[in-house]
Design a protein that fits this description.
The chain is mainly alpha-helical. The chain has 2 domains: 66 residues, Winged helix-like DNA-binding domain superfamily/Winged helix DNA-binding domain (Arc Repressor Mutant, subunit A), CATH 1.10.10; 168 residues, Four Helix Bundle (Hemerythrin (Met), subunit A). Helix content is 59%, strand content 3%. It is built from 14 helices and 3 strands. Strands 1-3-2 form a 3-stranded antiparallel beta sheet. The longest helix is centred in the middle third of the chain and has 22 residues. The protein is elongated. It starts with a helix and ends in a 6-residue tail after the last helix. The N terminus and C terminus are likely disordered.
Length: 306
């Protein structure tokens, strides 16, 4: 290539590399692209959280919803015992649920003691009152499996029952005072029924429904373990003498004396159990569930209270 040609090529190259002057008719460069907005990452879910959130909410079973609705009607409207409810067929039709679902809802209410289901041609569903032994039915197995010692039951009674005796001296009706004295003067009944019945009646004399209901459990447990204890005739006579003192203090309206007599009674009982080596053993030993299953079934099914 000649020197003239090389000079011409260099000039042409330098001209093409120069930016075009404004107004020379060339298109302007496009503006720089705007970056897309930054989207923050989704917040991390708590450990164990599912798609519905940390609670993992789940719709209740249809049978539970129906049982809730029926329970609300029974309690909210104050339906008396014996009130007839719609039949299973009617509940199935009105609720739009399957018969198996309706039956499950009814079984839930029956287990709570709110309804009774009669089978057969004359069958039906009626409102009932829960049996208070349901409390023992729930708690007795729990206390057995936890191996709660008899000392716990004795300590509970020593805290509560002297105060109950004092309250009974203030609140009991004349009829209740008379019945309490009469019961204390009777000899021991089969299966220590009179001994436990005395404490049950005393709780009723206190005139406080919550006290009466809550003491059902320790009294049921008392009945359960008394049948298996090595208690002598003299032990029973001593208990009867204590009941006699308590009942007369209640009958005379002397709350302080009633509380003292009850505390001495329970302290004496605690000392007897300690001599027998029972205080640190379960309230109802496991072997009793096997040995005396029939008796335990009677208690837990409420036959003692009927």
């Amino acid at each position: 290539m000649s020197s003239t040609a090389r000079a011409s090529a260099a000039h042409s190259s330098s001209s093409s590399n120069r930016p075009a002057a404004s107004g020379e008719g060339e298109a302007a460069a496009p503006p720089p692209a705007v970056p897309p907005p930054t989207v923050p990452p989704p917040a991390a879910k708590p450990a164990g959280a599912g798609w519905l959130g940390p609670r993992g909410r789940r719709a209740p079973k249809a049978s539970i919803l129906l049982a809730n609705e029926l329970r609300a009607r029974i309690l909210g409207e104050g339906m008396p015992a014996g009130t007839e409810l719609p039949s299973e067929v009617e509940l199935t039709r009105e609720s739009g649920l399957g018969r198996a679902t309706v039956r499950e809802a009814l079984r839930l209410l029956e287990s709570e003691g709110l309804i009774a289901i009669r089978r057969g041609v004359q069958g039906g569903i009626e409102v009932t009152r829960p049996n208070l032994s349901q409390l023992s039915h729930s708690l007795a197995p729990i206390l057995t499996l936890s191996e709660a010692p008899l000392a716990d039951l004795v300590a509970f009674r020593m805290i509560i029952e002297p105060a109950v005796a004092s309250l009974a001296a203030e609140q009991a009706s004349e009829d209740q005072r008379t019945r309490l004295v009469e019961l204390a003067e009777h000899g021991p009944g089969d299966g220590y029924q009179n001994e436990v019945a005395f404490h049950v009646l005393l709780a009723e004399c206190a005139g406080n429904e919550l006290v009466r209901v809550l003491l059902m459990v320790p009294h049921d447990l008392l009945r359960l373990h008394l049948g298996g204890e090595n208690i002598t005739v003299e032990d029973v006579r001593e208990a009867n003498r204590a009941h006699h003192r308590i009942s007369h203090a209640v009958a005379s309206g002397d709350g302080a004396d009633a509380a003292r007599a009850m505390l001495r009674h329970l302290e004496s009982f605690r000392d007897r159990m300690e001599r027998l080596g029972r205080l640190q053993q379960p309230i109802v030993p496991r072997e009793r569930w096997l040995k005396d299953g029939a008796l335990l079934r009677e208690v837990l099914q409420g036959e003692w209270w009927e």
